[in-house]
TrEMBL record:
Span of domain Enoyl reductase (ER): 10-334
Family as reported in the entry's similarity comment: Belongs to the zinc-containing alcohol dehydrogenase family.
Transmembrane segments: none
Source organism superkingdom: Bacteria
Cofactor dependency: Zn(2+)
Keywords: Metal-binding, Oxidoreductase, Zinc
Source organism per UniProt: Mangrovicoccus algicola
Protein known as: NAD(P)-dependent alcohol dehydrogenase
GO MF annotation list: oxidoreductase activity, acting on the CH-OH group of donors, NAD or NADP as acceptor; zinc ion binding
């Protein structure tokens, strides 16, 4: 069957690959319907690596997927053919120490779609563990199902923050993950979320949600806007989603005394931090790497209508146009949040 293959840095092709084997014990075969393009897919395309993960052989891209179960392997009881599902792309070793602790996202043995050398899911069919395959409510479309993966990162950030009802949060960086984090923080009980960025089109998109305020840091420093919004006290929770060095250096100024800082964005290189600034407010620092045990919660929020991710889907392109879709993602248009690819059939 055909797949979108990253042959090497800078070179994509749509070509035939061997299809997956039959669904084994505990596995399901899924007809893939929709796959979102993630920043990591784009980065492997443009740079050939992310940190220690280097593309050394052709790799199928894509890890944000929804589809329909078409075959169940022996022992699968909670899914049946015809079920509409989304898939969690990281498969840990269940016997690993990290998995036993519930931290399967940091299991060194985790196999994650489209992270070298593991193939992704931009192909018509995949076989996946049923335990990491989740049924979608009728009210959640395939397109929204493919948004569960990036939303899960926002959910992980909101959970790590330990939000209390009525908290005021700030999100630095209005990329897709910043937007997901802002919406997860709102759904998690924040009274208000202030999103700071310098790209006005992105702020306009996320600012259209009730409960979200935006600040364009080209015009107003984030710290001034947060002080204004909180009577000078600062935000209970600061989610750093830009990965930008100046934003990270400026984190202590955004938080209230005793508040929390959650590091979500990933700087490409090590960046300086204002340790004393963090200490002087006794800020609690949390970090986020992917997610663990949040898919059910994310789907429940979407199914209940409390979280609507549809406005973040900027364009949907057919599988045949996958390479053009990736080239558009590389362009990083100001008003593009999430681009998705739909598979035929
Ligand atoms: Zn992703």
């Amino acid at each position: 069957m055909r797949a979108l293959v990253l042959e090497e840095k800078g070179k994509l092709s749509l070509r035939d690959v061997p299809g997956p084997a039959a669904a084994g014990p505990g596995e399901v075969r899924i007809a893939v319907h929709t796959v979102g393009i993630c920043g990591s897919d784009v980065h492997y395309y443009t740079h050939g690596r992310i940190g220690p993960f280097v593309v050394e052989a052709p790799m199928i891209l894509g890890h944000e997927a929804a589809g329909t179960v078409i075959e169940t392997g022996p022992g699968v009881t909670h899914l049946k053919p015809g079920d509409r599902v989304c898939m969690e792309p990281g498969i840990p070793d269940p016997a690993s120490r990290a998995a036993k602790m519930g931290l399967y996202n940091v299991d060194p043995a985790v196999r994650f779609w489209a992270t070298p050398p593991v193939d992704g899911c931009l192909m018509p069919e995949v076989v996946h563990p049923a335990a990491f395959t989740y049924r979608l409510p009728d009210s959640v479309s395939f397109a929204e199902g493919a948004m569960v993966e990036p939303f899960a990162i926002g959910m992980q950030a909101a959970l790590r923050a330990r939000i209390r009802p009525g908290d005021v949060a700030v999100v630095t960086g209005a990329g897709p993950i910043g937007m997901m984090t802002a919406l997860a923080a709102l759904a998690g009980g924040c009274a208000k979320v202030i999103v700071a960025d310098l790209a006005q089109p992105k702020l306009d998109i996320i600012g259209a949600y009730d409960g979200i305020e935006t600040v364009n840091i080209r015009r107003t420093p984030a710290a001034a806007a947060v002080a204004e919004a909180t009577g000078g006290w600062g935000a209970d929770v600061v989610f750093e989603c830009s990965g930008a060095a100046p934003a990270i250096l400026g984190l202590p100024a955004l938080a209230c005394p005793g508040g929390a800082v959650v590091l979500v964005g990933m700087p490409v290189d090590p960046v300086p931090m204002d340790i004393v600034g963090l200490q002087a407010k006794e800020l609690r620092i949390e970090t986020v790497f992917r997610y663990a045990n949040v898919y059910d919660r994310a789907i429940a929020l979407m199914g209940s209508g409390k979280v609507d991710l549809k406005p973040l889907i900027s364009a949907t392109l057919p599988f045949e146009d996958s390479i053009a879709a990736f080239d558009r993602a590389v362009e990083a248009r100001d008003a593009d949040v999430k681009l998705q690819i739909t598979l035929p059939g």
